[in-house]
Amino acid sequence: MTTRDELALTVRTIISNVLGTEVDDIQEPTSLYDDYSIDSLELMEIGARLERVLALRIEVSDLTGAHNVGHAIDLLEARQAGRA
Q1: How confident is the model at residue 4 (pLDDT cuts 50, 70, 90)?
Q2: Count of domains for the chain
Q3: Cα 12 → chain centroid
């Protein structure tokens, strides 16, 4: 199992790769909808990449329900720990 910091870096890196930004531009308070106007295809690509890297099944609601990047990390951390 990865630490929260490792998970956060993985999530931020995947998001930045999909959106074409720098990793440092993506922080936990970042809202992908408000700050980047992310569309559903980008969100699905992020989800697919996270599933591959983390070897987790990620529900669409995990991604669409996240208020910001930090909330998404929390949801993924809980999923890894088997709490969600």
Answers
A1: very high
A2: 1
A3: 7
Residue 17, judged by CB atoms within 10 A of its CB (0-12, 13-18, 19+), counts as: middle
Question: Which residues span the domain enclosing 3?
Answer: 1-8+40-84
Cβ(12)–Cβ(23) below 8 Å: yes
pTM of the model: 0.91
Confirm if 42 and 18 have CB atoms less than 8 A apart: yes
Tokens of 17: 């790769």
